[in-house]
Each structure stands twice: as structure tokens, then as C-alpha cells.
Amino acid sequence: MNAPTNPKELELQTVEFKLDGKTIVSYEGETILKAAKRHGIDIPHLCFKDGYRPDGNCRACVVEINGERTLAPSCCRSATPGMEVKANSERAVKSQKLVLEMLLSDMPDEGFKWVGDSKEEEQQNQHGELSTWAARMDVTVRPELKALRREKVSSDISHPAMAVNLDACIQCNRCVRACREEQVNDVIGYAMRGGHSEIVFDLNDPMGDSTCVACGECVQACPTGALMPKGLIGSQTVDRKVDSVCPFCGVGCQITYNVKDEKIVSVEGRDGPANHNRLCVKGRFGMDYIHNPQRLTKPLIRKAGVAKDESMLEGKQDWSDIFREATWEEALEVAGGGLKKLKDQYGNKVLAGFGSAKGSNEEAYLFQKLVRTGFGSNNVDHCTRLCHASSVAALLEGVGSGAVSNQVNDVEHSSMIFLIGSNPTANHPVAATWFKNAAKRGAKIVLCDPRKTEISKHAWRTMQFKPDTDVAMLNAMIFTIIEEGLVDKEFIKDRSNNFDALKENIKGYSPEAMAPICGISAETLREVAREFATTKSAMILWGMGVSQHVHGTDNARCLIALVSITGQIGKPGSGLHPLRGQNNVQGASDAGLIPMMFPNYQRVDNPEAHAWFEKFWDTPLDKKPGYTVVEIMHKITAPDSDPDKIRGMFVEGENPAMSDPDLNHARHALAALEHLVVQDIFMTETALLADVVLPASAWPEKVGTASNTDRMVQMGKKAINPPGDAKPDLWIIQEIAKRMGLNWNYQGPDAGVAEVYDEMRQAMHGAINGITWERLEKESSVTYPCLSAEDPGRPIVFNDKFDTKDGRVKLVPADIIPANERPDTEYPFVLITGRQLEHWHTGSMTRRATVLDAIEPMATVSMNGEDMTQLGVSAGDVITVQSRRGEVGIHVRRDDGTPRGVIFIPFAYYEAAANLITNSALDPFGKIPEFKYCAVKLAKGGEVAKIMGYGTNAPGGSKEMSNV
Description:
Blueprint: H1 7-10, E1 14-19, E2 22-27, H2 32-38, E3 62-65, E4 72-73, E5 84-86, H3 90-105, E6 113-114, H4 119-124, H5 128-136, H6 143-146, E7 162-164, H7 174-182, E8 188-191, E9 198-201, H8 217-221, E10 227-229, E11 234-235, E12 240-245, E13 254-260, E14 263-269, H9 281-285, E15 300-302, H10 312-315, E16 323-325, H11 328-346, E17 351-354, H12 361-375, E18 380-381, H13 389-398, E19 416-420, H14 424-427, H15 429-440, E20 444-448, E21 461-463, H16 470-483, H17 489-495, E22 496-497, H18 499-505, H19 511-518, H20 522-534, E23 538-542, H21 544-547, H22 552-565, E24 575-578, H23 585-590, E25 597-598, E26 602-603, H24 607-617, H25 629-636, E27 648-652, H26 656-659, H27 663-672, E28 675-680, E29 692-695, E30 704-707, E31 712-716, H28 729-739, H29 749-763, H30 773-779, E32 781-783, E33 809-810, E34 829-834, H31 850-855, E35 860-863, H32 865-871, E36 878-882, E37 887-894, E38 902-906, E39 919-922, E40 929-930, E41 934-940
Parallel strand pairs: 1-5, 6-11, 17-18, 17-27, 19-20, 19-23, 20-21, 22-33, 23-24, 27-28, 28-29, 34-38, 35-37
Antiparallel strand pairs: 1-2, 3-4, 3-5, 7-10, 8-9, 12-13, 13-14, 15-16, 15-29, 25-26, 30-31, 31-32, 34-41, 36-37, 36-41, 39-40
Helix pairs in contact: 3-5, 11-28, 12-28, 12-29, 13-22, 16-19, 16-20, 16-22, 19-20, 25-27
């Protein structure tokens, strides 16, 4: 019996019809093809792809319907009660085979896509899905049809990632739908008519010259090999497929690694809850960083007599002049022994640790446990301090939880999407597809950003406000909503606190008063505020443009107030969503990799939490919150008389010598440490300053979980082994713990990862209680909070109460706090830093990925065209950008979306390290640096690096590598 059994399916209306004499149960509106497929009956199809809008243009799936004269495409036709369908009647099969034969007759003699390694297999199965269906239907091409084949079309190999082989195109339209309807990039289309029609990119440009963003959705959609990964034309045979989750951004796309000869040869999108098969250029084409010859493969110890000096980062020294290879035993003894010696000599406060948001939850949990129980302090932090620390501070204060209220793709239920301080097409590309999909169905996107970014093309309103004026703009909206009586009175009365204080504070923030400050007209401020308050469902999503300010916490407080006074939270399509940056920054924070919180955000200075963890870990713990990332750098350079002076550090998978603000100071501090241990996969800028470097495993080389921006705990699986003598991070952490005197004994495969996870699950105090290791192995992804094995998880929270003590949201008024450093006559420009589509964070991974580095090989500064004219420069010219802390020489890129008086530099390039310029001023609550605002001056000309990227003489290179 093929009746539906899923409870959700039972809620749908069903119809019964006959297919080849068999009774089929179909859902209302379901097509014949999908119903047949669900019942295990295959009907030939080529233009149909699960998840895409059916197009019905190939006609390979036609069926015969009783009472109808013409054959019907089963991919488009919905079943009706009592309908009698024949997919294998003589007439239907004859038509299906004719379509396949005609398409096959037009294929090139040598195909581009097949499964098999032998010449015979190639000949039998040259053209992907078309050949597969032809073989199943026993279709052979008549010679007279082959003679009519169209003229050969030249291949287009102009793109670094993909090859275009229109000789194999059957015009199924899957690539067009992939580009225009799924990813909504609007690059691929049709040109000409009839027999002359063809697939084109933009205005018939070569693919490499088009506006293609290399998401590769078209490649995954193409059934015949007309669009292919450039390095994978030919046999698609692999040794194994391994399901996992992407290691780049916080969206948490599920992927499949294709492994051949112990190398990941390609990556496919999987139908995971966050991405539904979609990927971006990094996830699809950026995984070969793990095979880069600069991978660390042996433990390294600094050579005797080689001093640590931050100037070595400028000279790009060969690391083989600095380090010698060692055995694991020796390296671990030197690493752990050096840390323990400092602790024994100076006490518990002298050590600190930076963990990683690129690793697993288990690694994050064990690393913070090592620092707290082994080092004896709470001096542990990671890159959350540099991205959303202020957002988390405001959320914990206001709603009692540091995570999102609704998941990204819940925007499908939104009538308004309020995007602020986020460039999602660059930083969260797959999330951006859901926003663009929503806009196409009628949702209103409001983009608030000092820079006019790509998503503005899909926006209902773009509010390009002046940098540093977030509070002025948001308070003006709150003023309008309160003044015009648009608040949700019932929500305020029943579910909020402190509204009167907010109302009083907002009196001086009318749109008319704020318009000159923020640069948005009073009319627009009022219009957007009214729409937000009165629309059915409005969701706020924000990025680091909100958080990376000295007033970042206040910015987030305004967003909390905005959704609360309008009741736009706790229901579908509404709520608060800080778009998390790294793949596991949410999970690492949840696991306690922060200086003031134990796992699950339990404060270390809370007596009850402190007592619980002392008992749980059976170790005395420090009651004082530790120092944050930037504070630790200051404590390293503190005088010897300071009892909290930090003298030794363990850095696991972080690169503060590139990611910290005011890099000259940060690098000086790292070089000043008496003992620095770095655990990483490459010789990063930070590793060059280390005493011991421990070679670790990349994400595809280990087993572990990661928690994405949607609160989904997801399973990452091992595809290949680490290179050489590199080891899993979890194993290394445990070995350092052993040498710190800790008696851990985690059992099981992969360094006891399942046992570590189970301990973390207990430490999380119920939040992930229902998400067992065994459940994740079966389901791959489960959303928290999840309180029991039967609990499916809660995608939407705050439906009836908040996680605060009284269950109410706390409204916290915010006032205008100016940036720490304003432009003046000497430094008249504002610098904004951030990421770009192709390169992630400090670039240590993505700049070693072949395709990504080919697309964006060098650092550029984005400038408005009018500013370029005034400075007398053109695109590609070199300028010098200087602040009060440092300077870089860099090439100019014209970007009229960047306003006059503002420049933008991505911080992924060591040759032009943006953080040499940035300001280390901190938000007083979240302790996040002000990456999004500092004063700079520009000068025509300057010095740029002679070598771009990670060549032999770059950080991470060695003499040995020159022969690889």
C-alpha cells in the first residue's frame, strides 16, 4: 500500500487516479510525474527537476489520458479524481522514445558527462541523463537522423570555474530556471527564435565576461553536460559520495563531497533544510583548499635563536628558515610544557586561548573546557567577539536568548523583509536567494545600508543612510510608530517591559529632526515605519554592519524595540535574525567559547551556574569573567607588575594577526608572548609568530557537528584523511590537556567525538537534550531548542513567552553615540571593512582555492566614481589608504554604490591588510571593535605587493613548496 504515512502528508487533501492500471494516491495539485515517482514508477523526463517549476518543454514525459486526444506532459499535468493515465501505452512510449532519439541524434560524437572509466562505458553513456534514459528505453539513433545534426558549436571556456558546451545543449531550460528562478541572478537566458534559439549569458557575452557569480546552480541542473565544472569534463565516476555540511558561512548548506583517488573532485548541493540543493561559489568550487600544497603536514618548532618579530610578516619570510620539523611527541611536550611552565610560575591568569568558529561544536566545547579547567581562567574567546558580540549582548538582555527567533527561509511567509547592515549576496549568498525569491512573489524588501549593494535591485525601498547613524534612523522609525499610534498595544501590555521609558526617550527623535543626521528623508522614514508596523509579517535580518560599532549593542536594541512595539515577533515571517558569519560561530558561542559565559550562555559569575559546572567538571573554576579578544592583546603588552598580564596563548584555528583591529599592535602583542602555540591547517600570519605549530585537520577531514545561523545542529562527516602527519583537532586539544595535567578519557572513534558531544549536550542544560548523536547520524540536521527525542525542534521561538526571567521582552532605549573617530580635515574619508563573495574571513582557506583566487586574485578598495575623479585616479590605479594606525597600498575599484566620502576594503588580503588601518575602540557592552568606521586619508600612488596571493614567498610558503 502506497498511502501517505507522514502526519504532515495526511493533512493534505488527496486524490486517487489510475496509472497503468494501478491505483495511485496523489496530493491535491501534485503532478502525475511526481506522484508516479513517489510510488516508485519512473516516467522519462529531462526538463523536469525536483524543486524547480515544471516547464514541460522537452516532452519526454508525455502520457496518454483516457478521453483526451493529445498526449499530456506529466511534469505539468496535475492528477484529478478518477483520471486514468497510461505512461507505458504503445502511443505514449513511441512518443517518449521519439523525443529521446531526436535529442540524442543532435548530440556530439564525444560527450562531456558520463559515468564510467572505460571507453566502452563512455560510448554507452556519454550524455548524462539523456543517455541514461535512452539506454533504459532501448533507444538507438537512426543514421538518417544523425546526418541532420546541427553544426558543431565551439566550447566556451572563458570562465575560471565552468565550461559551456552548447553542442550538448537540449534547451531543456533547466539552467535558465536555475539562474532566474532559484538563485535569481538573471544571467542565463534565451536569444534568437525557433531553430536558431540558444542559451546566452547576459547579452550573448562569453560566460567569463558575464555577470555570472559562479554559484554553479546551472551546472548542477544541466542534464547533459552542456554546462560542466571546468575541471570535471568527462567521467563522473567517483569512489564514494560523502554527505556533510559546508564549512564556509553560517547558512549551513548541506553538501555532498564527490571523492576520487582520495581527493574531493567536486561538490554538489544537497536537499538540506537551509539550502534545498542550492550552493554559492565557495561551497561548490572552493573546497580544493584542502589539497593545496601549502597544507601543514608535520609539527613545527621554532628554531633556536630565531626571534619573534612582527616585521617578519612584512618581509614574507620563508617559514622553513623559522621552524624545524618535529615529532608529535616532541612538539606536544614543548607546546603543552611551555604553557604549564608559565602557569606554574605566574599563576592561572597568565594564559589565554582563542578557539575557532571554523571547527566543530565538540572542538569548541573541549577547547573552552581546557582553558577553564586546565589554564585556570576564563580567558577564552573566538571570532564571535569580532562579528556579532554586540548583537548577542542586546539579545540576551532583551529577549533572553543569543540566537535567532526565526529561520532564514521563513521569509517565504514575510510580507516585509527588513535588511540592515548586511550584504547577503556576498556574505550569505544562499540566504540571499530566499530574499530574492520572496521579492518575486511580492514581499517588500527594505535595504538599509551605507552602501548600495546588489540586493537593492530587488528592494522596495533602499535607505542608504550615512555611516554611523543607525540609531538616529531606527529611532526615527520607532518615533513614527509610537506617535502615529501604530503600536501593538496588546503585545506591549502583555509581553513587554519598559515601554514607558522607551516612549519618553524617543521624544527627541522625530523623522524631521533625524533626516539631516542620517541622510534619509523624513517622508521615507515615516513611509517605511508605517509599512513595517501595519504589514502582516515583517522580519528583521542584520549583519555586521549593525554590530561592528561602538554603538553596536544600541543598534541591536533599536531592532529589538522595533519588532516588539509592533508585535512582529513570535509568528511566521517575523522576528529577529542576526545573520551569523562563520559556519559554526553560533555553535561555538553556544558551547561556551566566550569569556563571560559557560555553555548555553550561563554567566561564569552566576553562583548557581558556577557551582553546577564546578561539580560537572569536578574542578575549581575562576569566578571572574575573562578577557575578550582585543582586551587579551592589551593584556599581553601590560607591564610585568600587572597580575593579569598574559604571557602564553593557545590559538586553535584563528588568525588574529589578520582579523584583529589595529594589526600593528595585535602583531606586536603576539610576537611579545613568551609562549605561543598555534594549531592550524596552514602557516597563517599568526602561526609565523608561534613557538610551536601543530598541523590540524580541515573540515572535510573529520567528524563533528556545527550549528548554523538557523539554530540547526548539523552533522559533518569525514570524506578523506588529513595529509601527512596532520591530526584531528579534537585529538590535539586532548593531548594538550593531558600535558596540562588533566585526566580526560574520551572513548570511541574519531577521538571520542560522540562522547564529547554527549557531555556538551548535558552542559547545554536541555537546549539540545533531544538531539542525540544517534539522531543526528540518521537525520543530519535538527533544530534547537529540542527538549526530547520526539521533539522535532522549534524553528520559531518566542511564540508565547521570551527566555527572560519574567518571560517578557525588555525594551532598552538607545541614544546616539558617535563613532570613536570621526573624519576631519586631515583624515576626511570613512573606511568600512568587510567580506566579499569569493573570499572568506582572513583568506587563509579561500585564497588557496584555485577558482576563488582566479576570480578575485588581488585586494581592491571600492570608491565612488566622483571621488576617483577628484583624486585623479582610474580603476586599477594604486592609492595609499592611511589612518592614524597604519597604511596600505591598494588598487582602486570603481563602485558607485559606495557613497562619496566612504571607501570599502575587504580584510581577506595579507598584501593589503585592511586591519592595519582599523580602530580597536570597543562597544562597552559587547566588547566588539569598531571595524565599520574609522577616519582615513587617501593619496594617489603607493607601494603594492609584488606577489599577489599565496605564492612561494608569501606567508605560508616555504622553499620546499617551490618544487611541489
